[in-house]
Amino acid sequence: MATLSPLLKQATPVLAERGEGVYLYDAEGRRHLDFTAGIGVTNTGHCHPRVVEAAQRQVGTLIHGQYTTVMHRPLLRLTEALGEVLPEGLDSLFFLNSGSEAVEASIRLARHATGRQNIVVFHGSFHGRTMGAAALTTAGTKFRAGIGPLMPGAAIAPFPQAYRYGWSEEEATRFALRELDYLLVTASPASDTAAFVVEPVLGEGGYIPAPPAFLEGLRERADRHGILLIVDEVQTGFGRTGRFWGHEHAAARPDVLITAKGLASGFPLSAIAAPAALMEKARPGSQGGTYGGNAVACAAALATLQVIADEDLVGNAAVQGARLNDGLRKVAADHPAIGDVRGLGLMQASEFTTPDGEPDAAAAARAHGAAAERGLLLLTCGAYGNVVRMIPPLIVTGEQIDDGLALWADAVADALG
Ligand code: PMP
To answer: Which Pfam families match (predicted)?
Structure first.
């Protein structure tokens, strides 16, 4: 008898049988409030009827129109539809299956387009687990330890982690940009640097929103040195942060945008977007994949875009995100062990610390486990695993947010009490 490899590390013991909206139902019929959304994927909720209908229709028409062999309409239609929501000028798209693959594609594009090798990432970043993307990932030991040597050419600059430094956002931003300037005249000379790759909210690294001035500082340096600004919107895209794209909280237009997760409501699909003039510098055929731009995934993505627009999920993410942040702050006010509450839109987190301000992963794990016992599914993150994050589907109602907060308050009291 075969068994699943212990390589698989699962955050909860739930066996999910069925999903509907913000809920998952397990084998015993128990209902779980899913504030993980499949790691920020099921933005339209589990099995949104319009996504289901679109995918079912496509399954009976054409499942696999392999895109390096033949073209198919769902891919063409999706390209057109994404053109309506992408930042001005990012009018050329290439599709793959996962966030990591799209990150890899952006590295190739940046190296081809600039003729330079180095990619600068920011400490605490998560860009994926494939070997190129892993070289850009600094969110924790498990993503790097024992698998090297990783792809050369990745340089790491500080991300403005104000809470960790005990600084204001302004101080942290000033420090991070100064260190970046130093890096560009030392370890990664500007003339050798192809791109900055940045998350608008440091995701797996601890749910730390990039201060707008930081992203704007990157844009300014990118322009000054002919470096590309690649924004990894894999987790922050499609309304998650209360704007359609996470980078829209700052005045910093990306040269390349990476997207996946929320794009297709759970079907594997990712894309990179860039100006056509930039994409033309990539070598045709240098990217691809058997399943890239799968027809069913594209049909689901088209329906996803329509649901986001028709149900104003971006607006709802802003409103419910504020409600969630407010409630999390109230819980934190009763528990000094929650040292920080932060986030953008429906990407919110609580950071657990010991009385002397050190990361407290054990407390976070207890709160996470106590929440799961009460039927509230959450995830941890952060290099030390001491941050508990909430990423509900964007269809979540105020009442469901309040339900989640009540369960959270109870779980935290149990875990810390
Ligand atoms: N970039 C970011 C910002 C992510 O959050 C993730 C996934 N958590 C990835 C890339 C990698 O995506 P995937 O797991 O689909 O390869």
So the answer is: Aminotran_3 (PF00202)
